[in-house]
Prior knowledge:
By secondary structure, chain A is α/β, with parallel strands linked by helices. Chain A has 13 helices and eight strands.
Amino acid sequence: xxxxxxxxxxxxxxxxxxxxxxxxxxxxxxxxxxxxxxxxxxxxxxxxxxxxxxxxxxxxxxxxxxxxxxxxxxxxxxxxxxxxxxxxxxxxxxxxxxxxxxxxxxxxxxxxxxxxxxxxxxxxxxxxxxxxxxxxxxxxxxxxxxxxxxxxxxxxxxxxxxxxxxxxxxxxxxxxxxxxxxxxxxxxxxxxxxxxxxxxxxxxxxxxxxxxxxxxxxxxxxxxxxxxxxxxxxxxxxxxxxxxxxxxxxxxxxxxxxxxxxxxxxxxxxxxxxxxxxxxxxxxxxxxxxxxxxxxxxxxxxxxxxxxx
Amino acid sequence: xxxxxxxxxxxxxxxxxxxxxxxxxxxxxxxxxxxxxxxxxxxxxxxxxxxxxxxxxxxxxxxxxxxxxxxxxxxxxxxxxxxxxxxxxxxxxxxxxxxxxxxxxxxxxxxxxxxxxxxxxxxxxxxxxxxxxxxxxxxxxxxxxxxxxxxxxxxxxxxxxxxxxxxxxxxxxxxxxxxxxxxxxxxxxxxxxxxxxxxxxxxxxxxxxxxxxxxxxxxxxxxxxxxxxxxxxxxxxxxxxxxxxxxxxxxxxxxx
Lengths: 309, 256
């Protein structure tokens, strides 16, 4: 059921979407325009802390993410923020949880905000959405199915959600709430949306497996092995494309697909696309408008061959 | 005695006698493999406290050794010696010497949080892995891991400017770890990327390297965060008694 309040939301692209994840940024914005949704950029946003800052100190990550929520609330006067990146989404949700439940996190964040001269964020005043929640809630399957112009024609897709969309589950209290809600054990929001767009979702056992993204460069041999598992499992399940919803996973799959080819001689042919790119194509957007040419995984010829582009 | 599951015992703890007679009974060959008895005396009774004093280690005391963490672990599936349940056991019993046998792989935790998801006691084993890796480095048992170098390069950028620029981090990381930036697979990836990449995006990426994205009005946050980091470092050093250790080493040197 589409909800009016989610048709205009604050937008937090984050650092990756301004760099290597640009095609995700581009396709998300293109989808919003096509669907008549409004994205208001969070003014003067900062890095959420990604996966690295918490290893130096977790409370710095809490402060950084809380600052983004505070900017949403105080500078933009919005009470819903949408973050397409799993890392950003996870960190904002984690900050929300920690500030509501942990007095020490609250004290450090408030002190840092005060010293920095910001207005501190108060837990419970901003709702954080992933791009998947946003499309489900603001548009929903019914409207989306009416809007599909070019069906994905039975394209066989493995939906890959990665780690940070569902784990740890305590920071996602709205998930696992029965019918209609997202599942942390077997997420399905991306499957639901792509099915409406005409895709066939293959039974993919590694939906929430880890790509080794946190150590993609610092322990690249291990990351390559983890990615090879994912790529090969997707192919074994009959997938032609892996749909992603996280820039770290997406870049990791692309990067280590090449690395596996070069270092281990393991070649996989499955293509990697952001789910927003696939939805955009189904809504009739040109591949350039959703940034297919900006991906490392070169799927243009394949998409043309399948009459999807 | 034949030993069941002999592979679980380290070879150095097994002794086989080619010829042995005990109480007049010849037990040579197959019957003469013995597990050496072992007495552990070098406990570090403060080990659990030290790990618990570092961020992520706070809830290690909750563990009841069910093994859900190791069972669900991404890294354990590829590196069987990567065993969070066992390390938590060693830390809680103070078996520092045993823990140190695995010191070079503990940093390899990929933070997938499958253990945190599975843990019935809210130990947050992912945090315990980070605290333990941190402890190993602070105590000087291991050099900084590649992951720590990456985290530091990344965090330095965030603290300095509020935002990161990816290519700067990659360059910084390869420089700090003494690796060539032109890894063949990175070169190949860049080549493939450049096949279709529009010129304006390339220019924008180039410009970002020079102009460096930054949050506005960040000076206050930078000062506050740097002070906080210093404060935390000092508190970790106190918890691990590092300053005392350094002072003791210095006076020892002086005496010599």
